Model the fold of this input.
Amino acid sequence: MFNHQEEKVGLEHHSHHKKHHVLLICFAVFFLIVIFLFYTSNGFGFTGNTVKKEVVEETGVLIDASLEIPDLKLKGEFSNIVIKTKASNILVEGESFDTKREMVFVLKNFNGKIYLNESKINLLSGKAENVLVNDVSVSPSKDSLRIKNDEDFSYSSLEIENGLEINKIEYETSGKINVDNGKYLIDVNNENVILENFFGVLKIQDNKAFFNGNILSLDVEGDSKFSISV
Done:
């Protein structure tokens, strides 16, 4: 009788322990699915971003736009960034560059963040394989260089060559938009412009932002009402 009760308690304990393990496994699987969906939906990691880029390059619409400069928060890997500035607060491996004349910074294979608006770069933080200042390599012996700014700085021009990926830009602006190699020419005047899934080159100079690349969707809300998507 006593042995039978012990066996029953042992079975109940084993059953409870097994249910506990099942719950833990279910929770772990759910957590991994949530993390995966978060990363792929935000354009980070895995293969989602690469697949989306290939889709835009193969099926997207060509765009060549000259617009006012939007506020941008860019994050990712950039093959080549060129910044012209007189700022002395760009730190490369903690070293600043004091100068009164304009300097050209070239960041090779930069991985990090760039936040900017029409007049200033608010954040420049990350690592680059190499940094050139006026065509002179800062430290060619190192595999990567840390770059950051200790405060906002003004710039006269900025160019991100190839591989720039922006999920969405929406702002009120004026300028010209050339869609599909001249098939559609749009003059916007203080109208709301929405660009989605842009891949290409961004150049900022003379108080204008030049977007050249491919998009999956463009909407202009205002007098020039226009919409195209693929």
Q: What stands out?
A: The helical segments are 2-41, 48-59. The CA atoms of residues 219 and 227 lie 4 Å apart.
